[in-house]
C-alpha cells in the first residue's frame, strides 16, 4: 500500500499558520497578482504555507510569481521571499541540495536586518532538506537554529518553529525516545496556540512511528487524533492522509472492514475536491486492499480505475504504478501473457517518464540559473556601491587635506605680510 503518513505534511511550519488554516486561495491569488507590494508578499506567505500540503506544483508557481514580480519591479523583499518559497519547493521536489543552497543564500540579508521570523523559517527549510538527505547531525544543527531564532521572535505566538525538524533529526539518529519527547513538547505548545494543522502533522508522525514499531493500538490512537485536528482546518490533504493512515493501521491489525471503510472515506474526500493525483492513489490503495486479501478480480478492477484516471490526466508515474500492480495480479493468477503485456506497457511509460523528468529538471535548472544571475547582479551592484563609496571617501579626504593645506598657506602668508 502507498503509505502517505505525512511525508508531504512533514514540512509544515508555524509561520503564519493561523492564516493557512483559514486561507481563501482565490482571494490570495488575486492579491498576489494584482495587490500592492506588501499585499503580494503577505499573499505569497499564506499561499506558500497552504500549498505545502495541498499542491507542491502550486508552491512553485507562487514562488516564481513573486520572484519575477520582484525582478520586474526592482523590489528586493519580493525577490527574497520568492527565493525562500522556491527553495522550499526544490527541497520538497527532490532537488534537495539545490534547495538548501538557495535557502542558505538568503541568510546574510535576513541576519543583517534581524528578521527572526524568516530566519527561523529558512533554517527549518534547510533542516528539512538535510533530513531528506538522511543527515541527522546537520538536520539537528539547523533545527536548533530555527528554534533559537523563533525564541528571539517577539511576534511568534506558539514558539513551535523547528521543533518537528528537531524531533525527526532525533529519529534519524535512532533516538526514538527523544524524538517522541520532542513531539510531546511540540504538541503542548501547538495546543495552546490552537495550531491544528501542526497538531495533525505531529499526531500523524507519532502514529507512523508506533505503526512501524507494530504498536498498532497506539498508532490507531494517534492517527485518530491526527484526523480530529485535521477536521479543524479547512485543508483537504491532512484529513485524507489521516483517513488513509487509519485505513492502513486497521488493515495491519486485521480489521479489514474498518480498513476498507476508511480507504473509501479518503477516496470520497479527495473526489469532493477533484484532487486527481490523490484520487488515483486512493483507487490504487483499494486495489492493494483486495490484492492482499487474495481477491484478485476486484484488485484488478481498482488498479484499472487508478491506471485509467492517471492516463487520462497524464500522470505517468501513477499510470506506471497501476500497470505494474496489474502485472503482479495477472502473475498471481497464472495469466502470464497478460502479465507480460502490462509489464511492457509499464516499461514504455518508464521511458516517457524519464524524458518528462529530464524536461522538468532542465526547466528547474534554468530557473535556478535565473536566480543565480540575480544573486550575481546583486553582488556586483553591492561591489560597485562599495567601490564607489571607497573612492568617494578617498576624494573627501583629498579635498579635506587640500582645504587644510590652503588654509595653512593663507595663514602663513598673512603672517609673513604682517611682519
Task: State the main characteristics.
single chain; mainly alpha; 19 helices; Serine Threonine Protein Phosphatase 5, Tetratricopeptide repeat; 419 residues
Would you mind describing this structure in some detail?
The chain is mainly α and 419 residues long. Helices cover 83% and strands 0% of the residues. It has 19 helices and no strands. The radius of gyration is 28 Å and the shape is elongated. Residues 4-20 have low confidence and may be disordered.
Instruction: Please tell me what the overall shape is.
Output: elongated
CATH superfamily of the domain at 8-194: Tetratricopeptide repeat domain
Low-confidence stretches: 4-20
CATH class division of the domain at 8-194: Mainly Alpha
- Give, in order, the helices and strands: HHHHHHHHHHHHHHHHHHH
Terminus-to-terminus distance = 107 Å
In this structure, how is the largest beta sheet organized?
none
Strands, count: 0
Gyration radius (Cα, Å) is: 28 Å
Strand content of the residues, in percent? under 5%
Report the CATH architecture of the domain at 8-194: Alpha Horseshoe
Average pLDDT number: 86
Helical residue percent?
Answer: over 70%
Short synopsis of the structure:
With 419 residues, the chain is an all-alpha fold. It has a domain at 8-194: Tetratricopeptide repeat domain (Serine Threonine Protein Phosphatase 5, Tetratricopeptide repeat, Alpha Horseshoe), CATH 1.25.40.10. It is built from 19 helices and no strands.
Give the secondary structure arrangement, pairings included.
Layout: H1 17-22, H2 25-34, H3 37-54, H4 56-73, H5 76-93, H6 96-105, H7 107-113, H8 116-132, H9 136-151, H10 163-172, H11 176-192, H12 196-212, H13 216-230, H14 236-253, H15 256-272, H16 276-292, H17 296-312, H18 316-332, H19 336-418
Helix pairs in contact: 2-3, 3-4, 3-5, 4-5, 5-6, 5-8, 6-8, 8-9, 8-10, 9-10, 10-11, 11-12, 12-13, 12-14, 13-14, 14-15, 15-16, 16-17, 16-18, 17-18, 18-19
Amino acid at each position: 500500500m502507498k503509505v502517505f503518513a505525512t511525508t508531504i505534511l512533514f514540512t509544515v511550519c508555524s509561520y503564519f499558520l493561523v492564516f493557512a488554516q483559514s486561507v481563501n486561495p482565490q482571494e490570495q491569488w488575486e492579491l498576489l497578482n494584482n495587490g500592492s507590494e506588501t499585499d503580494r508578499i503577505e499573499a505569497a506567505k499564506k499561499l506558500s504555507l497552504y500549498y505545502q500540503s495541498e499542491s507542491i506544483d502550486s508552491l512553485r508557481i507562487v514562488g516564481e510569481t513573486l520572484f519575477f514580480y520582484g525582478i520586474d519591479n526592482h523590489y528586493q523583499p519580493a525577490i527574497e521571499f520568492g527565493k525562500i518559497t522556491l527553495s522550499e519547493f526544490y527541497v520538497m521536489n527532490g532537488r534537495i541540495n539545490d534547495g538548501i543552497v538557495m535557502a542558505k543564500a538568503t541568510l546574510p540579508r535576513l541576519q543583517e536586518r534581524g528578521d527572526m521570523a524568516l530566519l527561523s523559517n529558512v533554517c527549518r527549510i534547510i533542516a528539512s532538506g538535510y533530513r531528506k538527505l538522511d543527515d541527522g547531525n546537520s538536520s539537528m544543527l539547523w533545527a536548533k537554529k530555527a528554534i533559537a531564532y523563533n525564541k528571539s521572535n517577539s511576534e511568534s505566538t506558539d514558539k513551535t518553529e523547528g521543533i518537528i525538524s528537531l524531533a525527526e533529526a532525533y529519529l534519524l539518529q535512532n533516538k526514538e525516545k527523544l524524538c517522541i519527547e520532542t513531539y510531546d513538547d511540540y504538541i503542548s505548545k501547538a495546543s495552546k496556540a490552537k495550531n491544528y494543522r501542526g497538531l495533525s502533522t505531529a499526531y500523524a508522525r507519532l502514529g507512523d512511528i508506533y505503526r512501524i514499531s507494530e504498536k498498532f493500538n497506539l498508532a490507531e490512537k494517534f492517527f485518530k487524533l491526527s484526523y480530529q485536528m485535521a477536521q479543524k482546518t479547512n485543508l483537504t490533504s491532512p484529513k485524507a492522509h489521516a483517513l488513509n493512515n487509519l485505513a492502513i493501521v486497521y488493515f495491519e491489525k486485521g480489521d479489514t472492514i474498518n480498513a476498507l471503510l476508511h480507504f473509501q472515506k479518503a477516496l470520497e474526500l479527495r473526489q469532493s475536491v477533484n484532487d486527481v493525483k490523490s484520487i488515483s492513489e486512493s483507487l490504487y490503495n483499494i486495489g492493494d486492499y483486495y490484492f492482499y486479501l487474495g481477491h484478485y478480480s476486484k484488485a484488478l478492477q481498482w488498479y484499472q480505475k487508478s491506471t485509467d484516471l492517471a492516463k487520462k490526466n497524464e500522470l505517468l508515474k501513477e499510470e506506471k504504478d497501476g500497470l505494474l500492480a496489474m502485472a503482479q495480479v495477472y502473475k498471481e493468477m497464472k495469466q502470464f501473457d497478460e502479465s507480460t503485456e502490462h509489464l511492457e506497457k509499464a516499461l514504455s511509460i518508464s521511458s516517457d517518464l524519464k524524458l518528462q523528468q529530464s524536461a522538468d529538471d532542465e526547466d528547474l535548472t534554468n530557473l535556478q540559473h535565473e536566480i543565480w544571475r540575480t544573486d550575481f547582479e546583486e553582488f556586483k551592484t553591492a561591489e560597485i556601491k562599495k567601490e564607489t563609496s571607497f573612492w568617494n571617501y578617498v576624494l573627501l579626504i583629498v579635498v579635506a587635506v587640500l582645504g587644510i593645506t590652503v588654509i595653512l598657506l593663507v595663514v602663513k602668508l598673512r603672517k609673513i605680510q604682517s611682519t
